[in-house]
Amino acid sequence: MTLAAASALALAGCAGTAAGGDGGPVAVVASTSAYGQIAEAIGGDLVDVTPIISSAAQDPHSFEPSARDQLAVRHADLVIENGGGYDAFVDALIEASGSKSPVLTAVEFSWDWPGGAATESADGHDDHDQDHGHIDGFNEHVWYDVQAMGALAQGIQSQLEVLDPGHAAEFATNLDAFMAGIAELEDRLARIDEAHGGTEIFVTEPLPLHLTDAAGLVDVAPDDFTQAVEEGQDVAPATLLEALKLLRSDDVAIVIVNAQTGGTETTLVLGEADAQSVPVLEFAETLPAGDSYIEWMQANIAALTDGLAQ
What we know:
Layout: H1 3-11, E1 26-32, H2 33-43, E2 47-53, H3 67-74, E3 78-81, H4 89-97, E4 103-105, H5 146-163, H6 168-196, E5 200-203, H7 209-214, E6 218-219, H8 223-230, H9 237-247, E7 252-258, H10 264-275, E8 280-283, H11 293-309
Parallel strand pairs: 1-2, 1-3, 3-4, 5-6, 5-7, 7-8
Helix pairs in contact: 1-3, 2-5, 2-6, 3-4, 5-6, 6-11, 9-10
Organism: Microbacterium pumilum
Subcellular location: Cell envelope
Protein name: Zinc ABC transporter substrate-binding protein
């Protein structure tokens, strides 16, 4: 059932959103499980988190929300989205549900976001009047930007304190623990930069580039190649030949692919990497089941370290 077809039925007879801090947990809706887990890390048992996308089989770019998702947004005390055109369905849900709850938009916590919007306001609060669509040249996959996720966590803590001021101390303690994990991730990335800074890698899609850039690694994949693969378009023959030539040059240390998408050109790159004995790493768009955000990034950074050591 589509959102448009089901919205009237789903919203009929629904009560208004219960305010956080009224004795029950703060209701948080996150576009993906990664943001939901960060909210859980800060809120603990004091939040009730509903991630809209939690399965590797769901593609945020083409996701069609349900009436249940609209209902969750309507009752949310806080909404967390990625922004940057990645999860535009959240904007549609907010509009359709009539939600007036605060919205935190993850891209705005990245220093790479045009205008340098990272936590320029005290709490990162977004009244959702701004345009959060895709901007050319900006990599919207900001959950791989660990610095931005630390800033987002601070924004979440600030919002939870407003919604449930009686538990401000718990939120602050949880934030301290999360930020210690972020600091450890940044230290690991700095160690990779120190040992391998400038090393060339081939990334089939821009998915992990915030993380690899922080590690000092240089993506040499042709821009036309990665753009075509990300958009699901055919790669021009000349661009494909250029990509395969790079893999045969002995300069590329590792290849990184999106574990949840692929195509003919990606398959050819994987075949060439195998032929040239270039290690291949898979990075995903969704949080592995049972992992925390910090654990997920630790595993990704460990994979980078191991791949570069081969």
